[in-house]
Structures are given as structure tokens and as C-alpha cells.
## 1
Amino acid sequence: MANPAPTPAMESFQTVRTADANANPARLKADGVNVFYGEKQALFDVSIDIPEKSVSAFIGPSGCGKSTFLRCINRMNDSIEGCRVTGDITLDGENLYDARLDVVELRARIGMVFQKPNPFPKSIFENVAYGPKIHGLARDKTDLEEIVVSSLKKAGLFEEVKDRLHAPGTGLSGGQQQRLCIARAIAVGPEVILMDEPCSALDPIATAIIEELIDELRENYTIVIVTHSMQQAARVSQKTAFFHLGKLIEEGPTEGIFTNPREKRTQDYITGRIG
Amino acid sequence: MTDITAPSVTFADPDRMAALRRRRYAADLRLRFYGIAAICTAIGLLGILVTTLVIGGYSAFTQTHIRVAFDISEDLVDRGDPAQGRWRTVVSDAIEEMFTGVEGADMRAAGQILTNNTQFIVRDAVLRNPGVIGSTLVLEIPAADPYDQLNKGVINRDLPESRRRLNDGQIALWDVLVEQGRVSRPFNWALFFNADSRFPELAGLAGAITGSFYALLVCFVISFPVGIAAAVYLEEFAPRNRLTDIVEVNINNLAAVPSIVFGLLGLAVFLQTFGLPRSAPLVGGLVLALMTLPTIIIVTRASLKAVPPSIREAALGMGASRHQVIMHHVLPLALPGILTGTIIGLAQALGETAPLLLIGMNAFITSPPGGVMEASTALPTQIFIWADSPERGFVARTSAGILVLLGFLITMNAVAIFLRQHLQRTW
Amino acid sequence: MLGYLVLAIIVFSLAAFYVGRSAGNRFVAVEGAATHSLPGYHGAFVAIWVGVPALVLVLLWLLFQETVIDGLLLAGLPAGAIDGLSAAQTRLLLSEIKNVAGGRMFGTPSEMVLEAAQTYLRWQGIAGWAMIVVAVAIMLIGGFLAYTRLAPRFRARHGVERFVTAFMIFCSAAAILTTLGIIVSLVYESLQFFAMVPAHEFFFGLNWEPQIPIRDDQVAGAGAFGAVPVFLGTLLIATIAMIIAIPVGIFSAIYLVEYADKNVRNFIKPILEILAGVPTVVYGFFAVLTVAPAIRQAGNLLGLSTSPNSALAAGLVMGIMVIPFISSLSDDALRAVPRSLRDGSLAMGATRGETITKVLVPAALPGIMGGVLLAFSRAIGETMIVVMAAGLIATMTINPLDSVTTVTVQIVTLLIGDTAFDSPKTLAAFALGLVLFVVTLCLNVVALTIVRKYREQYD
């Protein structure tokens, strides 16, 4: 890799940013986010713009705060006792941590897919129909069926399960379960989908299918993916952010980060020296 | 891979969704309210239970006494043989002296103010101290139940005479005693030091407490070693096969068998087949031991499981035999947990009533048992007997008995919690 | 005398221990490290051989002495003395003989009884001395045999450990023996009952009047042992209890697991556990003293005819008693649902309430069902509350304001007081006990299986 000498580590911490002229405009922005678990601070002053309808990847060694930050975006940290968030995260200029904001509405707009596939112990159909049902998105049964089928199609699962929509979702293979969870998230019609290491529990073939799916989904959804596989970040994302010890070290177009990291720690990580 | 068309949500009217959200939050709030209501119901019922017991029972912790001067004249009581004295006359003389000028029916009523057993109380006091013969002996005598209730305000003077247990004449007699300053209401030690009696003012728990103590002792002596030995075998030595599976399932089910079935077992096996004596704390303890055994086995196994295998391996590595490993290392480490479970099991056994009824520990017995083979009652069965007695005084006695029983249970559980917190180590 | 004998056995065993240990010490002094077992094991080995056989002998002797002497006594009576006597009358005769022997005479006993009493005393004396002689002999023989085996290379530790293992196996069998004892005694007495009263009469008859047979030898009138109303009453009261306990138990578990913060939880859980620790006789008293009169008054206010010991009062209080069973098992079941399901639902924008009702409760349903079944079996087998608060007369009704009776109430009333093991009245209690045992056993097995399967699902 031929690249200029990395910038020396600075005394006062500053995220290294590379602008991307081709990037879509950003509707989701974070500004100066700090997260505390009790006394312990888990995230330090994270600011980042997430471009619309593209895939942004958060990478970094485990415990670096990337998942914590992801969970801040749809306020999943609310359910953890003793967790405190300061700073602003805005969607279309609206602060997600505004006291008047409705978390339930927010989570309908920002969906999430978890590390381990977690289908509910119900049928495949019921799994996908769950979101539309609770949010009242379907007027009647045909409407609901339509939503379920189209969500399953978009998640690339429909062909495999169309004969057994009423079989339990827990009976599917791991990769299918994860796509079911993606279909479940899509069914609510979110604008943003957060994915927390969605492939870490899957085999390479299932991983390839999901990655392909993510690439297709980016046409309609803003996707944020946390991964500790740099190859995966390089394959699926347009923008990459590198976290280390609770700090956002560097962010920029994926191309640039992997070929031409400007921070030494980023380079150390992608060349395997820290991790 | 698939056709990606317009967003799947075909129908998402913001106003409608907002209205729906309000309803959804209301449903959430309702569920939360149901939860709070359920908890308040449970705690409220417990509160009512405890309150009724305390209100009903606290008065039995005091007992109305009357100070009476008995003239132990040598005419009535012979120095040589005081036990054969004319004690009934001694008592009636003392009563006549208190109520000078009262005649006929009123005098008969006056005779019932003191407890029925007064003559024996006086006799026993004189036998203990024969020197008083020929002089006057002043004693505090318990008042009979209706007067005790009157003094405690349970009998309402304002009610019409026909609805009171004491008529105006009887109340007038009582007021004479009050005016003479003879009435006092000290702590009711008799509740703890007397055995059962037909008269509420004399009835106490001594027999029941002793009986329960003996029964629990038998229960402990049997179930503790047997339970530990069984648990150690099943946990540390037994091969995993169908037989041990059956034993395991069997133990779990035994813990859920209704207690009365154990009573039937005790009746058929211990009384009928082996011919052990009825109402004996020994039989009660045996039945309770069989009931407590599963509990002790289950807790002991849990405590043994909690000891990390590294300790066993370390000791085995030193060349200790498996028995030595268990005796020297595993059991001592598991002991606090075992003790905690045992105490809780014994507390359950202490409150158990139904099986004791079937083996006859609900007999009317007026002296504490001298050993495990003598007929006796137990605390819960004594409560059952008193609860069935019609006298007003027994209602208060029952509540008081329950409070004493609960006191024992709370103490035992507190000891168990103390052991758990101070001795048990977490790995 | 028995106390001295036990004391003697203990003293002999201790002595044997010291003798054995000093032998062990000698071995160590002579052979050093070549000795297999520590001296203490040599001591314990001899002590076991001295004490244990003697103790077992004494125990068995005591268990069977009375039966054997009774048999001898009856056999020794003049010919024809017990012909034509029922079992109960024979028992009466025996106890009269023993009373006379014990010096408690009521009236003037017959010549035969006086003579038998003498024989009884003689037999007792012989038995007592025989026991002592045999016990001492066994101790001496055991001690001698064990002592002669001691040697430097003798594996005394193995001997001791084998004994300990055998003891532990015996103790493990105690649980099985208890179950067997329950089954055998219930089945045996029930078979006798069904020999007197046909089984279909008992299981399908609609008329329960067990108090009819007054004389011992009188066979119950037809239809007097139809247990259907008793079963119905049991179900009625248990159902009322479950109607109270299921919602209260499940909703409190939901609140504690999903809504309450840690402090509230730590405060409330022990209070719910107190409900489980209160002895049932206390609940029974509460039912009689407070709840039943309150229900009666409320019923009178509404113009309903309410029995003083209504099924509602007993059922309500029983409901309070089983609340903690349901709440703690539901609590466990809800907490066993993996966090990821909870997160998955919340991340879809479900409210907490929706997450609970649509995801967590369905997922935890098997565990909750197990708890409900266990609680139901508790309610069916519960005795004291119904003995104190329910009625004695078996009525065919499902009106909760009426008085009904239950299986457990009938068992207690049939068996309290003097019991004769050959009257259908007494035996009926065992038949009821058998039904109770079988039903609760089935409920428990099903419930425990469901709970275990459910736990495995999320492990």
C-alpha cells in the first residue's frame, strides 16, 4: 500500500474527516455524542453525518463503542439501566433525544437488525406481520399479506419460505432467520436500518447472501452497519467510520479509508496491528 | 435477486398513526396499572391478614388478674396434710369477704368471677409454701374469660343487656372489684408457661411449643443426615442412568405431594403397621421428616453443584480419595447453603398442620409432653383446636398463638437469611 | 432400659474405635509408611462393625416386637375366645389386656384377660432381655471379627468408605421408599374399600353420606359413598382459587419483571414470598374469622342467600395462598426469555406493553402454564383452609355461595378421632387419598415436564 506518512497522533483529540463529493445528502447527523454507563464513559464526543440511501459501516476492535453508538441512534440504550447520553443526534433536524420525541415512532422510522438472529417464537408470517400490526400499517388482511409478502421478497426470503409461511420462524437456518429479521424490520417501512454485526453468527455463504441483500437495500434505505470484518465493510459500504477506545478516529469514503488511511491508528487496525 | 419496488408501506396516514399511538400508549399504561393493582391486591391482602391477627391477638398477651386475700385457717387446711384441705371453702370464703352484703343469685355469680381452677391455684401455692397455713395468703388470680373480656373492652357495656354475655348484675359485681383496686392486667406469662386448658384464661402454649420442639427435633435428626447423605450420593457418586433419573424425578414429585397424603402414610404405616403411639411427637416428627427430606435433598444438591469442580480436582490431585474430597473440602464449603435450606425446610415443617391431624396431634392434652413418645399437640394443631373452640377468649388466644407461631417462623427465616448473607460465598 | 441399651451400644462402639485405632497406631509404629490406612480408619472400621449391626437389630426388634407379642398373645388365649370377633373387637380386647397389664383397670376384667395380662408382661420381660442379650452378642462377634482382620496392609479405609457409600445409597432409596410406602398403603387400604363398596359406586355415585354406618359391622347403604359431589366441590373451590390467583400472580410477575426498577423489585418480591411462608392453618383461621363473615354480610346486602361456610370464602383465601406459586414461576419464566427477543420487539417500535403481551408472554407461556398447573395441584391438595372454612356436607352444586366439601376435608373428618381400619368409613378416606395422590401426581409430572422442556429451550 503506497500512501503518505500517517498524521502524527495529536495531543487534543480530533476526528480525521475526509469529505466525499459524491455522497448523498445526510439526514441523520450526530454531534458531540457522549455515552456513560454509570460512572464509566463509553463514547467520547462522536460527531458524524450518515448519508441518505447508502451504506455506512462502523469498524473498530471489540469494545471500541461502535455498537454503543449504533444503539444510540434508535435509543435502544434507553432500556439499559444507568445509561446516559449527551450530545445531539438528529434526523431531519429533529433531535432524537428531545424529551417530547416518541420513542415508539422513532423506532418505526429507524429499524434495527441484531447480531444474533432473534425471530420471535411465532410463524414466519407472524414475525413479519408483527410490526405492521402494532403500528396499524395495514387496513385489512389483504393489505397485511401484501406487506408481508413484499417485505419477504425484498429480504430475498420469499422464494424459500412461500410454502411454509405459517411454520415457526425459529425453524429456519441461521442465514434465513437473519433475513427474516431484516424482512421484519423492512415491513414497518423504516427510513434507516441499523445492523449490529448482522453476519457474525452466520457461515460464509449466508454472509454473502446478506451482503448482497444489503447492497440492494441501499437503493431505498439508509443503512448503518457495525462490523468487525474490514473486508465486509469494504465490500458493502460507501462510507466507513473507524472507532477506537470510545472515540471516532477517522471517517470518510470507504475507498479512501482502506486504501489511504490518514490516521496511524486506522492504518494499524486495517493492517492488523491492533484489534 | 428480487424486485425492489416502492416502499412496502401502502397505508401510513400520519394522523391515524398518531391516534393509534396514543391508544397504544394507553394500553401500555393499562398493563402497568394492572400490574400495580395485582401487587397492591396481594400486599393489601397480606396486610389485612396481619392486621386482623394483631388486632385480634394482642389482647391475649395480657390477662386480667384479681388480687384476692385467702384466709388459710387451720380449720380448713390441716398442717399435716395440706393437699387434702377444704380448698373450695377457702375460695368461697375469700369471695364472700370481697362481696360483703351480696346474697343469693348474685353471690353465685360472684363465685364465677375468678377462674374455675382457683382452688387448685391456691392449693399449689400453699403446698409450695406450707408456712402460710394459719395466716392470710394474697394471690393474683386470673379472672374468668367473660370478665377478662369485659376488662379488655371486648364486651361492650352499652349494648342492651340481652345481647351481652354479662348482665347488669354481673357487671355491677365487677365494678365493685375495680373500685376496690383489686384488678390488674399484667403480661400474660401463662400463655407461654401453661399447657392447654378448657378455660381460656388458663390455656397456654407450653404443651404445643414443647410438642412442636420434639417433633422438629425428630424431624431434624432424621431428615438432616439422611438428606445430606442422599444428596451427596446422587450428586457426587451415583452413575447417570435410568435408575438415578427415576430417583431424581421421584424426589421432585415428592416435594409436591399434598401434605395430607403424608398424614395418610403416617397413619397407615407408623400407627397401624408399626403400632407407634398415637399423638406422639415421634410420629409427627417422622412424618415431617419424610416431607422435609425432598427439600433438604434439593437444596443440598444445589449447594454441592455450586462448589467449583476445580476444588475437587485439586484435592483429587493430592491423592485424596473421593470420600475424603467430599468430607474435607466439598461438604464444608457447601454447608452454609445446606444449613440455610434446612432451616427453611424446618420452618415449613413447623407450620404444617394437616398430617399432624391425621396422626392425632390434635388431642386435648393439659400438660406438656415429657418425651417424644408422650401424647402432645403441636403449635399449628393447637391453633386449630383453639380456632374450633366457641369461647370468646379462645379467639384472642388463637390469634395470639398464630402470632407466636409466626414469630418462630420469622426468627427461623431471619437466621437462614443471616447465614446466607454472612457465610455463603459466591464463586 | 432401651435408653441404657442405646447408650451401651454407643459406649461399646467408642471403645471399639479406640481399640482399633491403637492397633492402627501400632502398625504405623512398626511398618511406617507401608501401612495402608490411617489409624483412625482402623478405629472406625471396628466401631462400625460393633455399633451398626446392633443398632439395626434393636430398631427392627422394636418395630416387630409388639406385632409378634400380639400374635403370641392371641394364640395363647383359650380356644374359641376370639372366634367370631371382628378385627376391631380383637383390637379392643388386646388393648384391654395391655391396659390391665399396665395397671389401668376399668371395671373388673374377666379371668381370661387377667391371665393374658400376666402372659403379656412375661412375654415383654423375655423380649426385653432377649433383645439385650442378642445385641451384646452381635456387638462382641462383630467386634471380634473386625479386629482379627486388622493388619498393616489391611485396607480399612476402603471398608469404611464402602460402608459410607452403602449408607448413602440407603438414604437415597429413602425417597423411593417413601413414595412406595405412600402407594402401597393407599392402594392396600383402597382395595379393601373397593371390596366393600364397588368402584363404580365411588367414582360415579352422586350421593356422599359416609357417616351413615354407625356400627362397625354395618355395611354402608347403597349410594352412600358416591364421591362425585366431593370431587365437584374440590374443583369448585380450586377453580375459585385459580380465578383469584392467576391474574394477580401473572400481572404481578409481569410488573416485577418488566416495569419495576431494581429497588421496587427487591422490596416487593420478599413480601410476596411471605404469602407463601404463612402456615395454612393461619389462612384457615383468617377465612373463618374475617373472610367468611364479610362475604356473608355482602351476600345479605345484595339479597343473596349465602352459606356461612361458602365455597367462595375458602376459594378466595386459597387463592391468596397460591398467588406466590404462580407469580414466582411466571417471574422465572418471563426472565428466562432471552434479552434478544425483548430488544427485537422494542427495536421494531413496539411499546413495552406490546412487547410483553405479544412476544414475552407467548414465549414464556409454557413456563407460566407449568406454574399454573403446580398451583392448581397445590389448591386441590390444600387441607387446612378448607377443613376450617368449607363445609362437611357434600352438595352437588357449582354455586360459589353454597357450602361444599372437598376431598381433603372428607379425609380429615373421616379419620379424626378413633379409627377402625375395617369400616368403609375409614377406608373411604384412603380411597379419596389415592385419588388425590394420583391426580396431583399427574398434574405435577406434567407441570414439571413442561417447565423443564421450556428451560431447555432457552438454555
Note: Chain B touches chain A at residues 1-5, 7-12, 16-17, 20-21, 24-25 (CB under 8 Å).
## 2
Amino acid sequence: MALISSTSPHTTVSNNTGAFMRQVIYATLPGLAVLTWQFGWGTVINVLWAVVVALVSEALILKARGRPVAFYLKDYSAVLTAVLLALALPPTSPWWLTLIGVSFAIIVAKQLYGGLGMNPFNPAMVGYVLLLISFPVAMTQWIAPGEAPSLVQSWQLFTGQLPVDGLSGATPLDTFRTLHSSGAGNESELASHGILHGQFAGLGWEWVNLAFLLGGLYLISRKIITWHIPVGFLAGLALPALVAWLIDPVRFADPMFQILSGGAMLGAFFIATDPVSAATSRSGRLIYAALIGVLIWVIRSFGGYPDAVAFSVLLLNLCAPFIDYYTQPRTYGHDKPNRGTQS
Amino acid sequence: MIRTLFRSRSRKIYDFHGGIHPPERKDLSNGTAIAAGPLPSQLILPLNMHIGAPAKPLVEPGERVLKGQMIAEPSGAVSAAIHAPTSGTVSAIGPRAIQHPSGMDAICIVIDTDGKDEWIERAGVADYTELSPGELVDTIRHAGIAGMGGAGFPTSIKVNLGDHQRVEELVINAVECEPYITADDRLMRERAAEIIAGIHILQYLLNPRRTLIGIEDNKPDAISAIKRACKGCDIEVRVVPTKYPSGGEKQLIQLLTGKEVKSGQLPAQVGVVCQNVGTAYAIKRAVIDGEPLLSRVTTLTGEGVRQPGNFEVLLGTPIRDLLVHGGVDPDNIGRLVMGGPMMGFTLHNPAVPVVKTTNCIIAATLEELPEPPPEQPCIRCGSCADVCPANLLPQQLYWHAKNDDLEKAQHHNLMDCIECGACAYVCPSHIPLVQYYRYAKAEVRQQAADQVKADKARQRFEARQARIDAEKAEKEARRQARLEANRKKKTETASAPTVDTAALKQASLEASKAYKAAVKAAKAAEADNADNLDALKADVDRLKAIADKAKAAVRDAKEAGPAAAPAEDIVGKLKKQVGDASSAYKTAVKAAKDAEANGDDNAAELRAKADELKAAADKLKAELRDAKANAPATPATAPQVDPVADLKKQVGDVSSAYKAAVKAAKEAEENGADNAAELRSQADELKAKADQLKADLRDAKANAPATPAPAPAAAPADPLADLKKKVGEVSSAYKAAVKAAKEADENGADNAAELCAEADRLKAEADHWKAELREAKASAPAPAAPKTPPAPTDTPKAPETEAPQALTAVDPEVAAKRQKRLKALKTAYNMAHKQYKEAHAALERGERNGDIPAEELNAMQQKVDKLKGKADVARDALDALVEEAKADIRAHTGKDLKTLKLEAARAESALADKQRELEQQRDSASEDTLEALSSELQALEAEAQIARKALKQAVEEQGLQD
């Protein structure tokens, strides 16, 4: 008999990193469905295309790095990156936009740093920011809620055969920011823009965000993520928004509008929770996510961009190691936790 | 109300962080009653089934043993006895594969069983309260009981805390949280009463305020059995929720008491003692039934076992026999685990025995416990941190351990990891995290050990440096003082008492500075808990003594008037010196002869030495004559003899002795000799003496008129007798030389010609003396002026007939024998030392690599200790022999080796000092002074040679060259 010789423990849970990633992908499905309902098939097409691009990029770069291709493709991390990035892109995105963003995210933001587990920045957000800076027009052309183009139109948008202009419309966040930056931000003006007044928040987007919230709650229930990052994120966004809105409800959007607009829920449950680039201790994650939330509110309210999930996440990715050093838990048998980098 | 509140509070089950819920798999084996294990044909009993020193065998191969007979006794405080689990014959005591992850061998007692199961007489005590706690602890110790839960810590230590330690809670660990294992479960169900009886004994020993039994809620039958058994007694049964690792000692203590055991401390320090339920059972059997620990309940389980269940297995039963007994198809199992699936280790060799800590054997199929999946990258998901019972950040520890960043790993409290495996269990990337931590921990331990070593070396170096600096300062101060004194002497021709207080003050200052530095060093060392504290303290004391002496000297100098030094019996002293010198000479001659006879290379050298000694002896004799002549002229008023010269000589002697002593002490320290402190204190005494004498000398110089050389006396006391003696000596030397030359010639030695020449020279000298004797005889009635012996001239004459003779004859046979023994012992010691070194290196390697668990390291440690002991014994024997030789030297020369060494060194350095002085004064001093100095120099030269010779001879005689 050839006995196995290994160190303890001799049994482990049956799940693996690939399963973990797949769960996250499944959890995006409600959000994807609502995006499709509101904005047409563009997002679905882009998600599928992004997955293809991601797998090919990952395979090529793994091959170039001399790593086992099949083994690493099975961890689904590239697929998840592609899905998250594609979900963040406008549904009007042409194929080349997705291609550039996803391949950059996989090759540069992830693999050139050493692959899964080694990347200091969230790859999807690196890809997103690259596109936002390089192609600001293409990246801000959303479709007016409820005016979803047909599958053919979506395909034509994807292949670039159909000009975007005829279909595009502003998002609630865009509308709100434009009103204020043009100096027209008074009560009657705000009231006259229907897009700002959906059931709970911005029209259409409230459903998108609620769908991502649903997926996020599924992740928490499956213990794929803990509550710390989403709660910190949303609190960090909502609390300053609440204070500011109580002070000046015309100048500042209300907290409900904030957390149900743009990429708030996608960011809170799917982007900021990327464990590789986030802080790792429980209290560290709270702090990390809360700072992301605050930063989003600051940029949305005072910055040059209508939304700011990507920038905020990347900035806090930078701070994560530092946060980790100051948020070690108190170890059993110790009076107080260790702080900083030196004992 | 408050009371009930308090009660309900104290009954609370606390929680600990993390924990996991792996599949329990306990139903595989908990359905059937404990059955008897196999009676194998052979039992293998490792001497180290517990943590601590291995037991010491009491039996020899071939000896018949009875069941329950002690076959190995505890060999130290932390150790446990071993008993024959059944009757049979000891067939071997030697290395066998043992229960260790590495599959290594260790010394075991092997018993061929005879199947009769014959007991020795058992002496149980029905009422244990008749025994004192001390006796009970002894019973437990000699029953070989060690923690049955897994660690195997000798129980007698844990139940013997001493009166100062108040035990708040006695916690009985019946949690059995690892999957698969049901040994404690079945034990509690079937033998609850005996367990409770054992707990009562523990209560009697520890006198705890509360006794708590912690049982996981997945063992309802065991809970009810225990609850039934302890009805009406002061034992509280606490049901804890099923969660791994609730059975960890620290976790259970936290669960039941809410107390945390501080990092690096023992539970006893928070007033808790934790014992396994199986241990309590074993204590009952040992105390009340008089049965030592011979067997234990072991779970045999896994899907590869046809009839899984619990067996009462004799200690030493090979796993193979147990597997056969349980119906295991060897081809069907993929993994064999000793212990639980979370913390157990895989076995490669089913021949290893069941030991006191073997609570479970899992014979798992490949499907049940498959090969671990390949390791994927860590994505820092934090699942590990969520389950860590120590509340660590395993993902960060992993990162730092993998990068060998041990400092950061320690900052993340790596050393608090209990290696429970919860993190690795939940890791979605299947990273063998525990293995990384084991590695990093071993590295940390190794680094700490290296650090301690380096610190010690540094402290030694610093202490040495401080000492050297202090000595330098002293020397410099002395030199300054001497220069000052000389200058003063030159400028002040008057006899005013001018003690150089300035120089003394300077010396005093230096000394106290050195002392303060040493105090500081010692304090620092104390703060560091350094090992060489004693040495440093001795240093401090020494320096303090020096400083005090220096201060006293300053005081004395200030107070001292023209006080004169006490007179000395110069003649007596000289006589003694003459005696010493001539006997040294004789021994030297003999040595030279021996050397030549043996064809030694150094024969020529020895001969030259003999000559030198001769010259010295002659010189001394002349001096003696002078002194004798002077003596009657200057009876009791000794100071006028020449106190200055005398004192100078004394100072020279003492200070060179001091230097020699310092040197010896230094060497001893460097070699780590035990008598280093002693030598140092000796050196201090000498120093003090030297200082005193110097002060005296200064005083005397101030008092005495500047006439260094003693005036030649009027008449010698008895020149004839003296001359006669001289003639005898020289001629005997000559004879010896002739003989040596002859022998050398016969042996074809290279130096034969040289020896011949030497013989001729001696002959000439003898003739010269004879002539002188004749002359003296002729002028006998008239008091003749003594002549200083001239340099040997070439006046050949006949040899005399007197055999050379050493002071006391040394039996060369004895010396040779001793030399042989010395050599043999030295070889033995070297071998033992080498073995020890190798074992030590192996141990260090083991600790560094970290793949060896604590028990094994302990075993290795013990081996190292044993070898060290052996080496020490050999060294002691060697030392004893050397001492013997030294004693012989003492017997033969009237001095011990140390004295001889000191004398030699003293003479050498006095000579060097004198030479220096002469050099210094050459330009400045008057001709008289120079003359006096050169004559002194000669005398010292001779003295040094004598001493050197004597030492060499003594050493060689006793075969102590090495």
C-alpha cells in the first residue's frame, strides 16, 4: 500500500478558489438582468465578449510567463474580472473598448504584478479607469432608462455600425452634476428632471442597484464575503450625504439617491470586496470600505466626474497594506493588539 | 438573588474566536463498547512516550519481566516511568521506528510476550486520603502517567504545583473535539465512576475552588453517564457546543472560565489546571488499583477498517497488529493517521507502536482522505482569519512566512499559533498553512538561539575589552609613576620622602574609572539576563579591589613619612635561592640527559638551559657569600643591608607574578576553565601586594643613600666548603654531559658532537674550580677575599665521581604510564566531545528545519545532554589524572605546577622589566646605577632560566607536555 504522507490537517473543505469566484459571478446575474431590462442587450453582449477577451489574454500571458494555463484558468478570476468590468461599462460600448479595457486589466493590472493574489490594485477598476481617461466620451454614453434598444441595435452599437448619439441619454448622476455645475441647480430645476425621481432614487438606476444589493446579500449569506466592506462602503457614502443633504437639500443629493445611483451597490458588494486588493482584517475592511464611500461622496459632490467608484477603490487599494498594519486583531493571550509595522 | 445571579454567571459558557465544524465522523466508531486490543507477539516501548527526558531502562535484554513491572524509570523532573504491559522477555533495547511524523528511530525496549499475562504484585490503596499529596504525586510519577490527551506531559508535574500556587479551577477536558476520535466518549460512557474517582484524587491533590468537566454536546450519552456518576459531588459538568478546537487547552479554559492564558504562560498562572479525562482514569487505576499505565483506549476508525471501534490497547502494540485486529485490508487504505484528522500525523510505517498519547488511528481510504489538492494562490479571502481560535491573521502570517520575513511574522504573533489546522481546513486555495507556520516558527526559534549565542559572545568580548583597557590604564599609570619617581630621584638628591602622589592619584582615578565601567557593564548584563553575569560581577569586584587599593595607596602616600621597610633575612633568602637554583640545575641536567637518551630534538636546548641554570646557581652562591660576609658586619639593623635593592627585587617578583597570574586567569577565562575566578582573585592579591611593595620601595628609595650595589664584604663565611660543593656540582654535571654525549653518539644523534663539546666545557669548568679549591685550601688560615666565579675557562682536568641527582627521583615508568593513560583519556574525551558536538549540531539542524515535533527535539536534546555528560566525565577523568600528575610534581619539587608556572612567568617578566629599565636609564643614569642595574639584570636572567627549567622539567617528568 502506498500511504499518503502529508502534514495536518488531513481534511479540508471541498470548495476551492474557482468555486468562490463562480459564486461571485452568479451573484452578479440579478444586476445583469436589470441592466439588460433597463438598457438593452449591450451589457450582456459586452459581458460575453469580455469573458472571451479575458480568457484569451490570461491564457496568452500565462503561457508567456511559463505558468500552467489550464490550472490558472480554472480559478475563474479572469472571468470574474471581465464580468465586473463589462458590468461597469456603458451598454453602448463598442467591442474595441471592452477589448482594450479587459486585456489591460488582465495582462497589466493582474499578471504583470504576479498574477492572482499578487495584484495591489483591483484589475477591473484599473481597466475601467484606463478607459475612462482614454475614451471619456465613449465611457459616458449611457442610454436613457427604459428606452432599451433592441438586440439588433445593441449588436450594431457593439460592432460600431450604429452611431451612439441617437440612443444615448444622461444618467441621474450626470444630470444632477450638470445642473449644479451649470449653476442651474435650484429646486424647480431639480423637480423638472424626471430622471432624478424614480421610485426611491434615480430612475432606472434604483433597480439596477437594488439588483446588485440582492446579489450581494446572496454572497454574504453564502459567506463568500463578510458584511464589513459593504456596510462600511454604504455607510461611508450615506452618512456624509445625509449630513450634507440635511444642511442643503438642493445642492446635495439625498443619501438614498447616492447609494442607489451609479456603481454604488456594484462597488459595495462586488468591487470593493475583491479580497486581494482590499484590507484584510475585519476592522481594517470596515475602515477601508468607509473611506471608499466617503471618497465617492466627495468626488460625486465636488469632483469633475459624475461617479467615482473606480477612483476611490484604486486610491484605497493603495492604503490597504497600511491599514492592515494598524488593524491587527488582538491575539488570544495578548492584552492589546499590535499596531504598526514594528513590534 | 445576587447569589443566583453570580451562579448563573459562573455557569456561563464563554466563547472563543473562530473555530470550524468539520464532518464529525464519530458515528463510525462510537457505537460499540471498548473491546480488548490484540496481544501481539512483540511490544515496542519507546523510552520517550511523553514530553521531557526519556526514561532510563532498568532491564537488560534477556530479562524476564512481569506485567506491571517497571522497566524504565523517570530520569529527571520532567519524565515518566515505563512498565511492562504484559509478561515476557526483554529481547532488545535499541532503535526502532517510533511515533513521529518523520518516521525516525528512537531507543525502545522490545518485549517478546509470553502470552501468560502474569502480573507483579499490585498494591492499590482503597482510601487515597491515607497518602500524603507527596506520596500520591510519587505514585503517579512511578505509574508512568503522562497527559493522555495528546501532548503527553508528565502528569506528576502538573499535579504538583507547590503550596504557593492557588488552583481556582480544575478543568477536566472531555471535549474530544477532533473528528473521528471517540476514545474519551466511550470511556466516559463505560467507566464514568472510575473517571470521577480519578478526578477526586486530582481534587485532593490540587484543592481547586471549582472542578469543571467540559464535554461537547455531540456526546449526549457520555454527558448523562458522567452527570449520573458525579451526582452529589462538587464537580460541575459543562456542556460546550460542538466546535473545533474546543478541546484545545486554552480554548477550553476560555470556554469554561472566560480566562485567557497569557501568551507564553501556562494555565497554572491563571489558576487553572487542565487534565484530560483519560488521565483522570489512569490516575484512578494507578492509585486505587495499583496498576501503572499499561494500556490505553485507542479509537481504530476510518473507512478502511472493517470493524471500527475502541480498543484497550497495550502500550507498545505495533500499529500493524492493531490494524489486523480491527480487520483492516492493507491494500484498501490510502492514508494512515495517528491522532485526529486535524492535528494528527501520517504514518509511513505500520510497525510503529501505540504509545501513551495515541488516542486514535485512522485507516482511511483514498476516497475518504484524498491527496491534498494542488496549492492555489492566496487571495486573502480572510476565511482563515475568521476561523482562527487564536485570532491571528493567518493570511498575513502566510505571506510573511513565505517571504521569510520572520520579523513581520512575529509582529503578527506567529508564536501564538496553536497549529490546530482550522485555517488550512477552510482555505479555498488549499494552502498547507500550518506547515508554513511550523517552518517559520522553527526559523524563529533558531534565530533566537543564534541571537542568544551572539549576545553571549558579545558580552564576553566587551568584558574582556574592559578588562584589557583597565589593565592598560593601570600599566600606564604605573609607568607614569615610575617615570615620575625617576625624575624626582634625579632632581632631588636630598633624602626627602617624595612619594609620587600625583601618579598614584592618576592610577587611582584610572582604576575607579575602570571599576565604574565594569559596574555599568554588569548592570547591562543583569538587565539582559546574561549568563556571564557572575564573571562580570567578579570583574567588578576585582576592579573595585584595585580601585580601593589605588585609593589606599594614595592615602598611604599622603600619610607616609620616611617610614622604613622591615628588614629581611637576606642571607636566609639567598640560601634558599641557591638551594633552589642548584636543584633546578640538577634536574635540568637530568632532563637533558634523558632527552638525549631518547634522542629528543630539544636535548641541545635542555643542555643549554642546564648551563644557564648552572651559571645562575653560581651567581647566587657568590651573592650568598657576599651576603654572609656582610651579615656579621651589619647585624640587626637590617635596613642598611640594602632595603632598596631587596624591595626592588620583591617588587619585580610580585609584579611579574601578578602579570603571570593575570595571563593565566585570562587564558583560563578564554578556555572557560572553572578556576578562572580563583585565578583572577589570586592575581588581584598579587597586584595588591605589588602595589604595596612599590609604595614601600619608593619610601625606601627615598630613605636610602644612593648606593645600589652592595659593597664587597671583608671575608666569606666559609669559602672552602663552598668551593668544594661547587667542584662537586660541576664535575657531576660534566659526568652527566659525558654520559649524555656517549649515549647520543651511540644513538647516532645529530647533536653528539655538540654534547661532547659541552662535556669538555664542563670539564674545564670543573678543573677551574678544583684549582680554585686547591688555592683556597692553601690559603685557608688567611681569610681570603671571595672571587666571583669567572666565566668558564678552558682548563681541562680530570672528572669527579659524583652522580647527578634530581631533588627527588621520579620513576620514569610511572611517568610513562601516566603519559599513556593521559593520551588514552584525551582520545576518549575528544571522541565524546565530538559526538556531543555532532548530536548538538543535529539537534540545532532539527530545530531549524522545524519539521521535527517537540517530542523528538526533546529526545534529541536528551541525547545531546547525555553525550555532554559523557564528555564531561571523560574530561573529569582527564583532569583528575592531570591533577595527580600535578600532585606528583608537588611531591617531587615541593611546589605545585601552578607555583612553578607562576615562578617561571614571574622571573621572565621581572627580567623583561629590568631590561626595559636598563634601556630607559642607559642615557640618563649614572654609571654606578647602570652597573647595579646590569648586575641585577644578570641575576634576574639566571633566575628566569632556573624557573623556566624547573617548570619544564616538572611538566616533562609527569608527562604533562600537553
Note: DSSP finds 26 helices and 17 strands in chain B.
